[in-house]
Design brief:
With 253 residues, the chain is of the alpha+beta class. The chain is built from 6 helices and 13 strands. Bound molecules: thymidine-5'-phosphate.
């Protein structure tokens, strides 16, 4: 079989040319990075879990009428997606203070925000993905005012869906990041949720204990990242059969 053409390799995923025009194959790696690549490791099984979890969330969004790039899962690590033109922004929605917001404003981690807050970072690793106001985005032409209005309302709908689904399995959605892409049908443009939605791009805390079940486990050395992601997948009922935690074999004397 001819080797597939690699289109783009990022920190956690690879894009290959898809089987039909207008499609890509998105491959989920086991690599974990934090601090803009300063901390790196390989977490066995992470790619398999994120492939399943992203499929679960994107399918759920599609079912409530929020368009996404997702077409179908192909195998354990790959999914078929629509080719999109990525808007170079990280769209972040926060329900509770954490991470860079808590640090910037001197807030206690976990403090309830008065309402969900949507913010934008420019996707630029060299600059460390700086926070940018909507004014910059429109002035520099990264997106139009109409795009921004649509992106904010889409991000808030994704937040309502994700918060509800996670709360149903005893998990609080602290914050998350999505990326938005454009799909062109001749002159007609549509915005869709792209990239991935997984515990790599969300903050997820157990409702009862406050235990972290997301990439902060890796960022802050809090234990096993694969155990945390497996727990999220288990609660959502999307645990792939060969990543289940089997009891360790016992030595028989
Ligand atoms: P932050 O508190 O570090 O700004 O992150 C907010 C949310 O966005 C958090 O859920 C992690 C996610 N995120 C990413 O997925 N990728 C990124 O590059 C950044 C900066 C944040």
């Amino acid at each position: 079989m001819a080797r597939r053409k690699l289109v783009y390799e990022g920190k956690a995923k690879i894009l290959y040319e898809g089987p039909e025009p207008g499609t890509f194959v998105q491959y989920f790696k086991d690599d974990a990075t934090a601090g803009n690549g300063a901390k790196k490791d390989v977490i066995e099984g992470k790619g398999v879990l994120n492939n399943r979890l992203s499929e679960f969330f994107m399918t759920g969004l599609g079912n409530i009428g929020i368009p996404t790039h997702f077409i179908r899962r192909l195998n354990m690590r790959e999914q078929l997606i629509r080719q999109v033109e990525i808007i170079p922004l990280e769209v972040i929605v926060r329900n509770f203070a954490a991470g860079s917001m808590a640090k910037r404003l001197g807030m206690e981690e976990g403090a309830t925000l008065p309402r969900p807050i949507v913010e934008f970072s420019l996707k630029d690793d060299k600059l460390g993905d700086p926070l940018v106001p909507e004014e910059y985005i429109i002035a520099f032409g990264w997106a139009s005012q109409q795009d921004m209005d649509d992106i904010v309302s889409m991000a808030l709908r994704v937040n309502d869906f994700m918060s509800g689904v996670m709360f149903g399995v005893g998990i609080k959605l602290i914050d998350f990041k999505i990326e938005i892409g454009r799909i062109w049908d001749n002159d007609f443009m549509r915005l869709v949720v792209a990239d991935e939605i997984s515990p790599d791009s969300c903050r997820l805390w157990d409702v009862e204990t406050g235990q972290k079940l997301d990439k902060d486990v890796f960022r802050q050395d809090l234990g096993s990242l694969s155990d945390a992601y497996t727990e999220v997948a288990r609660r959502l009922g999307v645990l792939p059969s060969n990543v289940t935690h089997r009891p360790k074999p016992t030595l028989i004397n």
